[in-house]
Amino acid sequence: xLRQSPLGENVLENISLTQNVIVNGWSDAKxxxxxxxxxxxxDIIKQVYYATERGxxxxxxxxxxxxxxxxxxxxNDWVVVPHxxxxxx
Length: 89
Fold this sequence. Notes:
It is a single chain. The protein is an all-alpha fold. The chain has three helices and no strands.
């Protein structure tokens, strides 16, 4: 399941459905595709998006979601995206 609301912005209707793509929202965090270590992967997201946060709650959630999308998903896997009112895509 992928919640498409990077940094609180709902991109499902404006981008994903109209362009038939999945948007996760971490495009400014360079080096994620090449990073083999999860903890450094999480640190990249924290440094770029959550540098002022004391803990790793937000960056950990983002890193976990993105890590699964990049490293665990395979071609032909399904992605379920929740939307308002109990609707799923």
